[in-house]
Fold this protein.
Amino acid sequence: MTSDRKMALGLFVEGLGHHIAAWRDPGVDPRSRQSLDHFTEIALTAERGRFDFIFTADTFAMFGPDDPHQWARSTVASRHEPFTLMAALAARTERIGLVLTATTTYYEPMHVARMFASLDQLSGGRAGWNIVTSNAPAEAANFGRNAHPEAEERYARAAEFVEVVTGLWDSWDDDALVADQALGRYVDPDKLHRLNHRGAHFSVRGPLTMPRSPQGRPVLVQAGQSGPGRTLSARHGEIIFSIQPDVTQATAYRAEIRATATGLGRDHSGIKVMPGVLIVAGATRTEAEDRYARLQRLIPEDLGVSLVSGLFGVDLSSYDLDARFAGVPLDRALSHGKAIHDLALREGLTLRELYLKVAGQRGHRVVVGDARDVADDLESWFSAGACDGFNIMPPTFPGGLDAIVEHVVPELRRRGLVARDYAGRTLRDHLGLARPPSRWASA
Ligand SMILES: Cc1cc2nc3c(=O)[nH]c(=O)nc-3n(C[C@H](O)[C@H](O)[C@H](O)COP(=O)(O)O)c2cc1C
């Protein structure tokens, strides 16, 4: 059955793959994470599959708990600075959107506004900003602090930060660049605006040193799960990433985001809720299952346990791996950890079963199968109204992505669920998102 509503497809790029043991897979070159050719191959494959965008996460410290033991066993220790990586990929790709993370807790708005404005210009309108307030506790120690500010304070700063950044992006009217060589007039100063922002966290005069970018504003992306996080998503998010264990919860989450956005005066058709899903695809179901089983066998036991310990904020190394898990206090857990804890109790898992379920994919859902299996799953979520598309997480790069593009994408196309080609040049065009007017447009 075909319909006009199309699934948005994002590719969550994680160096060597999303599976925690990806780097040990014989099909993966464990040193390729440093190489631009590796990321170029990924981006071009995704572009060939007509993904709307690629996305990279970021932290200013190793992902997860500050645990040298984990650095030794997984690839969390290695990560490119995302603006540098995406700028390089902008030059090697033509159409695919480039979404990257910048934290409002440790940057200043002027940095972020400028870097994204440049990326949007240089890529011809393909930039998107994943707005985070910093997730990894270890980042604080790299900025002269013992701990992050409390979540409430981080989100208050984030809200003001986004106001300033969007204001700076608007600080040149669309027609401010005159560039009239005969008249000798480069810009029209009446069409440049000082922001003159003075708030609780920032004082920023403006204007930006850059004409308004092709998208007007790069696409705003958010993934808050807490109360203040969801409010920020509903107020500003155009793409919203989430971690959803099942279709019922995902549907409720999307409905809540849409209702909150409507209450804030937004048109919710401009919001793409995109839960993450780790897809292990193969030419046949058996091939996909074998690929997944091979990866699962490569997870070291102690790494599995320490990952779950990190998520719960509790050391589980002395727990019996094969006894039914009875739960732990969660006052130091990440919000991501709470969802996983609920899952363990709901399904009566042992610690081993739990780490095998979550270690590989960091709490995201796993779908393993051939093209029809995977397409059936994605279609059932999409048609239930649980999402507007998916943030797709291949288990390995490049092989895990190749299998998705080779098998799953053609099946989604055949069903009329995804667009066959890009609708235009910019990320907004791909996603059907309007180009936002400048805040000075009607002044
Ligand atoms: C797909 C996805 C990507 C994320 N990327 C990052 C990231 O790059 N850096 C980061 O600090 N947090 C990242 N997060 C965490 C979120 O920004 C957010 O902190 C988390 O979902 C918890 O919500 P809360 O901040 O409202 O508690 C990501 C979350 C998801 C679901």
Summary: The first helix runs from residue 36 to 48. The chain is about 40% helix and 15% strand. The CA atoms of residues 180 and 192 lie 17 Å apart. Residues 57-59, 101, 103, 130, 132-135, 223-226, 229, 241-243, 276, 335, 391 surround flavin mononucleotide (CB under 6 Å).
